[in-house]
Specification:
Strand content: 5-15%
CATH architecture of the largest domain: 2-Layer Sandwich
Distance between the termini: 93 Å
Shape: elongated
Structural class: alpha+beta
CATH superfamily of the largest domain: Beta Polymerase, domain 2
Largest sheet: 7 strands, mixed
Helix content: 40-55%
Radius of gyration: 29 Å
Length: 420
């Protein structure tokens, strides 16, 4: 059914690759519609992502029509009725209408059908169960339009059954609520997620990582994360303590800096107090090498960064480099005591935007010319000289630099008697 609203003005319905696919499938007694997230996003005036298409035509017929029209087809999930059509370089998943015969976790045995209502009823949430036909008419068989108006994320049918079909839907419930919902999560869905939380253990780490990183940067992430923590869900995912206060503070800090939400920063604020936490999260979520290294660096002695004078902060920036300095400083800010002056933290975090560390002006040859032989002693002397250079606030004048070299060599030689 439809309540009269439509998407006749949607550009992807009127021209372009999607319109071509719909025209290909909407003949000879078959019907095709755009379904799911694209319809939801268009109705909620948010950017539309991938366009998925459902059809009454069987997969073999979809392939036959595509071949006749010179369109590339890829059998990406043909056993479940999905064929990917590539038009002008743009892929479209085209799936034959289905109904579940038997479900067991992520897998399902399906039968192809021609009933749009039965197909909609097997989906996850009401706002994802909408479809739009080529004429722009929106079809709603599950109450999705009312839930869009209410900004409510609600499971289709029995929440416990929907979750048992795929436990990743627990994370999707909170992620989609964070992106599209308002207020507290739907109570029936929330309680079903709590009842089904043991099923999270059977999910692959890669799928959990993908959903969590998307959730953490959604507009409503703070409220969704707090609800997940209260329901004991994050403990199952993280395997350790979570810190909702620093997570909220990180969101506030990013907003103060007018910076795009960073999923790794937010993950660190939520789950990392020490480097051991970072390593546990990297393993449990199968983070990429870059994500794991960033998280590990954030957790390393972040507590030493508060209340620094800028001269000390410059030395930290020089040692850490811009990315590690900024990330660690952001975690320190998020975990700072309440009442800390945000202006001071903003000045420290934005230091890389105002000051660029110079290159250490002394080379190995400078010390070898002063009698230091190659080997461990040379490296030690260079490190001591660099420390002295930092302590003197990065001087670059020739006299000051040469004096540092002379003094370092003399001190080291006197203490160790290794040369001269």
């Amino acid at each position: 059914m439809s309540d009269g609203r439509g998407l006749a003005d949607a550009p992807w319905l009127n021209s372009g690759a999607a319109a071509r696919v719909l025209a290909l499938l909407n003949v000879d007694g078959e019907e095709a519609r755009v379904i799911g997230g694209a319809v939801r996003d268009a109705l909620m005036n948010t950017p539309v992502g991938d366009l998925d298409i459902a059809t009454t035509a069987l997969p073999d017929e979809v392939v036959r029509r595509a071949r006749a029209a010179g369109i590339k087809s890829v059998p990406t999930g043909i056993e479940h009725g999905t064929v990917t059509l590539v038009v002008d370089g743009q892929p479209f998943e085209v799936t034959t209408l289905r109904e579940d015969v038997e479900t067991f976790g992520r897998k399902a045995r399906v039968a192809f059908g021609r009933d749009w209502r039965r197909d909609a009823e097997r989906r996850d949430f009401t706002i994802n169960g909408l479809s739009v036909s080529a004429d722009g008419v929106v079809h709603d068989h599950v109450g999705g339009l009312a839930d869009i108006d209410a900004r409510r994320v609600r499971f289709i049918g029995d929440p416990d059954r929907r979750i048992a079909e795929d436990y990743l839907r627990i994370l999707r419930f909170f992620r989609i609520h964070a992106a599209y919902g308002a207020g507290a999560p739907d109570r029936d869905g929330y309680l079903a997620c709590i009842r089904g939380r043991a099923g999270l253990a059977g999910l692959s780490a890669e799928r959990v990582r993908m959903e969590m990183l998307k959730l953490l940067v959604a507009d409503g992430a703070r409220q969704a994360v707090e609800a997940m923590a209260d329901g004991g869900l994050l403990l199952r995912i993280f395997g350790g303590v979570v810190y909702t206060g620093p997570f909220a503070a990180m969101i506030t800090a990013e907003a103060a800096l007018r910076r795009k939400p960073d999923p790794v920063l937010r993950l660190g604020s939520l789950g990392v107090a020490v480097t051991e936490d970072a390593r546990r999260l990297a393993q449990r979520l199968r983070l990429t090498n870059a994500e794991a290294k960033a998280l590990d660096s954030m957790g390393h002695r972040w507590w030493r960064l508060g209340g620094m004078e800028e001269s000390v902060a410059r030395r930290r920036l020089y040692r850490l480099g811009e990315a590690r300095y900024r990330n660690r400083m952001m975690l320190a800010w998020a975990r700072a005591p309440r009442g800390a002056d945000p202006a001071l933290w903003m000045a420290l975090v934005t230091l890389p935007e105002r000051w660029q560390a110079p290159v250490f002006p002394l080379k190995a040859a400078d010390f070898m010319a002063r009698g230091v032989a190659r080997g461990p002693a040379l490296g030690h002397v260079i490190a001591l000289a660099e420390d002295a250079w930092l302590a003197q606030d990065f001087p670059l004048e020739t006299d000051a630099v040469q004096a540092i070299a002379d003094q370092t060599v003399a001190r080291f030689g006197k203490e160790h008697g290794l040369y001269g």
